[in-house]
Design goal:
It comes from Microbacterium terrae. Helices cover about 45% and strands about 10% of the residues. The chain is an alpha+beta fold and about 230 residues long. A five-stranded mixed sheet has the order 1-3-2-4-5, with helices on both faces. The two termini are about 15 Å apart. The N terminus is likely disordered.
Length: about 230
């Protein structure tokens, strides 16, 4: 057995344990969303955004990796730090098409400001304005991630993050939450991890199938998911 496969993926174990705690609460969110019949409004228009799934696409590889993230989720931030470079590498070398899904399951942790929804909306605003800036914006948002149970970043601060990756002129989209309804609708479509009763973040799907976070290989072995 190769040395890499013998290593314990403590990140995956930690994520799995944390997601289990979150699932009970998130189930309530999913039920309320389904009952509400939320109008998604007009979907963001961009060649890199799938209207039916909400995925922001990176790369053009034959295999597909989808990530479902919440900008208030500290484990999503950790996932990006651990796996982000490897995932981007697979997109850059033509192995995968990456689909990033900014969702909002943690609005209740932002003191009524609905930070998760506002942040996800902003990522769509950025992707529409400049597709190449979507990933840098995501990375910058995680670098400036607020603590849970805080009010989160203000709209002005989110716009400053966008400006730091050279995206401007999206003030009305961000402050008016142009895609908030779309974010809410796409959140309700997040796939369940194996054995889960509700959605959690981060959720990872390989070629359309959600996998358990405990099944994630080491970052340098991510390509084995597509063997």
């Amino acid at each position: 057995m190769a040395e890499g496969t013998r290593k314990v993926n403590w990140f995956a174990i930690w994520v799995s344990a944390a997601v289990v705690v979150a699932l009970v609460l998130v189930t309530v969110l999913v039920v309320s969303l389904n009952n509400a019949g939320t109008d998604p409004g007009d979907p963001p228009q961009s060649a890199v955004i799938e209207e039916d799934t909400g995925a922001i696409l990176v790369g053009e590889g034959p295999d597909r990796l989808d990530t479902y993230i919440d900008f208030m989720c500290p484990i999503c931030n950790q996932f990006e730090q651990v796996y982000g470079e490897s995932i981007q590498g697979l997109a850059d070398d033509g192995t995968i098409t990456l689909g990033i899904h900014p969702i909002s399951i943690l609005d209740r942790y932002s003191q009524g400001t609905e930070y998760s929804t506002r942040a996800a909306n902003a990522m769509y605003c950025v992707a529409v304005a400049d597709a190449d800036a979507a990933v840098p914006f995501m990375q910058a948002m995680f670098a400036n991630q607020p603590e849970e149970q805080s009010e989160g970043l203000t709209d002005d601060q989110i716009l400053q993050v966008a400006a730091s990756v050279d995206v401007t002129g999206i003030d009305a989209c961000v402050t008016g939450q142009e895609y908030a309804g779309f974010v809410t609708a796409m959140t309700a479509e997040t796939p369940l991890q194996p054995g889960a009763s509700g959605i959690g973040t981060p959720t990872i799907a390989v070629n359309g199938e959600a996998i358990a976070n405990a099944d994630l290989p080491q970052p340098d072995q991510l390509a084995t998911l597509f063997d």
